[in-house]
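Possible regression after last week's pipeline update?

I re-ran a chain I had predicted before the update to compare outputs. Posting the input and the new output here so someone can diff against the archived version. Not blocking, just want to make sure nothing changed silently.
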Amino acid sequence: MSRVSISFCIACFFVSFFYVSAQEDRIRYGLYGNAYLNIHTSSFKELPGVPTCCPQYTEGTGSGLGGGFLFEMPLFGSTLLSLRLGYADFSGLIESSEKQPTANGLTNFTHELDATLPAITFHPLVGYEIFSSFRLHGGLDFSYLMPQTYTQKEVVADPNGVFVPENSRERNVTTGDIQESSSFMFSPMIGASYEFPMNTNKTLLLCPEIYYQHGFTNVNSTLDWKVSSVRFGLALKFSPKPLPPPKPEPIPEKKPEVVPEVIVKEEPKPVEPLRASVRAVGVNENGNEFPVGTIKVEEFLSTQMRPLLNYIFFDENSDKIDKKYTSLSSGQSKTFSVQSLFNSSTMETYYHMMNIVGKRLTENPKAKLTITGCNADLGTERNNTDLSRRRAESVKRYFINNWNIDPSRLTIAFRNLSEKPSNNNEADGIVENRRVELQSDNWAILEPLVLTDTLRTTNPPVLRFYPSVQTLVPLNTWNLSVSQQSKVLKDFSGTGGRNVTSPLEWNFNEEKTSIPLQSQPLEYTLSASNTDGQSDKTEIQTIPLEQVTIRKKRSEQIADREIDRYSLILFDYDKADLGNGNKKIIDFVKPRIAKNATVSVTGFTDRTGDDEYNKSLSSQRASNAVKALGKGTSIGEGEKMLFDNNTPEGRFYNRTVTILVETPISK
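New output (post-update):
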């Protein structure tokens, strides 16, 4: 085809674009890019004017890149017309082999023709949507061939052969322009594509596609030489939404004659003031609300036994001790007291675990400690015993640097999985297996904490406040303050919004350090301000408070009781057997139970497993503890989030049995 024909095709492309742009149907335009796998089929001996001793060039392959611009318009139904204008590379390497007798016998020779065939392409295609976003395409490829070049040579194929006298494996190397080339190629095309919308309006589309074009006309007017190609590529299409038709101009209505009316100027309405209010109720242990009259704070003698989890957990592929573990300097360790943890939570106590062990090692100078590093034995940690060793060494350094423990008392061990690993087929188990384990030749180093002190309880255990603010404009700030003798015990505050909608709770069981110590009433008030500068503060409301101390009970001969709580935690994963560690705890608890004491034993599990299985497992744990104690009632609670199930230490502490012993005290 002449250059005039190519110009005509390009003109048709742009005329179609402007014509369709004026239609109401959605159109698409954008860019495409392809990778070409070219397949050359031929039957010629030599290029025009280029002598060669090749017997016959028959076939070859090649690759190239191409791309260009596209424009698409809907025709009818699920049919789409696509026009593409771009660049293509049909280059390829054609080879022919033969054997020729030489001084060394028959030798293999290869004749190579490396042709560079760039082209400007125009594709009119019709696509049909088979199912949502998937289309099949068919059409034509019109290619205008630009100047073509070649490199031709003869190569010795045998590894040890060379040409003489050249003493080279190549000869007759020639390059140049291909003469008598066709200026135009014509090929039928088929293909398939799938559209992925890249935004919610589906105006931007990413489209992977594949096409095959079959060579129909020759590359050279004097040679039998055709090129077919398989194209893999992506197209990025923009499909703008059509503009809505303009609204018709309203027909002017004949306006009736306006009769002047007397305008009465209204007085501005008064601004609605901001108003705040609050009420308080008590909440019992079952979650039921009731009017709160008096808060009763009672003291009991109490012994608490908290198990000491002897594991330190690490992040994936890390040997650094997590910041959640409380770190004491060498100076702070000298004043550290285990008894000071009485009012701390179980988790706060656990995060002091290395300090508790360090303190006990200083108090038991002959005791030794074995520090065993473990890994999850999966992914980056698979068979990574070097990581296990580094984890153990990190813990050893803490005892040496922060607690001044003699290194000879600290033994390093390392392995892959622990001797008693968690389930490595579940995500929770994998995290639990990334740990360091501590063992000692002296039970006193890792035995549970036994803390004796005064336990203070409140009735009700929870105070719940219902604040309310009425305002027409957004709030600036609000604050609910609870105090005793001008000392703030609890404070709630917030910003923004038009009201304080959620109830606010003060849970004394979770915040034991905030339990009031005096007998004076609690005072609470709510204050608020809005963006208009208005503010309001409720009158001070009071709740009477009664302190029932141990001294008061003894002086007034009020019936009293001791409340002791013991916990077992040394249950292996998915096991109900007590094990040696728990048996030692039972041996400690059993002789401390008086004949008139009431014993309640409750079993728990973590979140692993279904509800029915966890209920059964926790019941077995509690039942085994009752059998060992020889007294008490048992119940299995199953999965109950005593501690955070999202942490490995929380899940271990949830695999527990609690023993509650209430002993009446004679007047």
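Follow-up from reviewer: compared with the archived run. The first helix runs from residue 3 to 21. Marking as no regression found.
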